[in-house]
Amino acid sequence: MKKKTSALFKKTPGDHVFNVINITIFVLFSLCCVFPFYYLFINTISDNDLVMRGQILFYPKGIQFQNYRLIAYVNDFFSSVLVTVTRTIFGTALMVVVSSFAGYLVTKQKMWKRKFWYRFIIIPMYFNAGLIPWYTNMLTLGLTNNYLAYILPNLVVPFNIILVKTYIESIPADIEESAALDGAGTLTVFVRIIWPLSVPILATIAIFGAVSNWNSFQDSLLLMQSSPQLHTLQHKLYVYLTQTTNLDSMMNTGLTGGMNSSLSPRVVQYTIAMVSIIPILCVYPIMQRYFVSGIMLGAVKG
């Protein structure tokens, strides 16, 4: 029997050729994805004069890490980092709570006008009023030059609610019924039973929310025009990338203590871009296992 099985799965020369070609293609594709980040990093730790002359291509030269120390003296850098970190933490946490509870509620048949509210939540996925009505609405609500503009509009995310709803529907209903017979209310069942069982899908939407909050700059660009202290890190990076000619003066006025900076506009751009990328590169691999399991389990019922 074993001989038949081994003969059945014996690889032919064509299989070996296919595997070699397949692995080669994916290795090259992976290198194409990784190299831009690697190139960015080696240019931030190499000698700045060599970077300006374009001599850093595949490996660092004149390794030094003072760029990461000097970048802290660029105007409003720390405030932008603080704004981005806090909006990512608080915005993601509140979004997960609201999306998970909303997703749980729309699974309840006894919910008043359940189908109406579910469709009401889903409609914005297909129809969008546009940028100008959105800005007018934010202006009317007093969310311009207001930190809450980073938090409140992102609390309800239809796609995340769909994921949570689908995942919760895959949990056996007998568990909730047993808790209800013991006198547990809707909120108790959600907090003590549904929430712990939904960790994979909650981690999944947390990744979505964290990446979205960390990378977002359009809301900062449009809504925080009169409040530079509320600009996000991505907004600062956008400014540095689009105002290269003014970067020297922006950078020099931000240096303190008479420090003579060797930073160039290109080095500043590379370094800030690297700083904005590192946190996501560190967090995503840790959360990846939850992401994969959450997406697969949440997709069982389509």
If you had to describe this structure to a student in words, what would you say it looks like?
With 302 residues, the protein is mainly α. The chain is built from 15 helices and no strands. It has helices at residues 2-8, 13-44, 48-52, 66-70, 77-105, 114-122, 131-140, 158-169, 173-181, 186-197, 199-215, 218-223, 233-242, 247-252, 265-298. Helix 2 (13-44) crosses helix 15, helix 5 (77-105) packs across helix 13 (233-242) and helix 8 packs parallel to helix 15 (265-298). The radius of gyration is 25 Å and the shape is globular. It starts with a helix and ends with a helix. Residues 252-261 and 298-302 have low confidence and may be disordered.
Structural class: mainly alpha
Any low-confidence stretches, pLDDT <50, length ≥5?
A: 252-261, 298-302
Shape: globular
Specify the biggest β-sheet.
Answer: none
Helices, by number, come to 15
| Mean model confidence by pLDDT | 76
- Please state roughly what percent of the residues sit in beta strands, choosing from under 5%, 5-15%, 15-25%, 25-35%, 35-45% or over 45%: under 5%
Q: How far apart are the first and last residues' alpha carbons, in Å?
A: 40 Å
Order of helices and strands: HHHHHHHHHHHHHHH
The level of helicity is 55-70%
- Counting DSSP E segments of at least 2 residues, the number of strands comes to 0
Rounded Rg: 25 Å
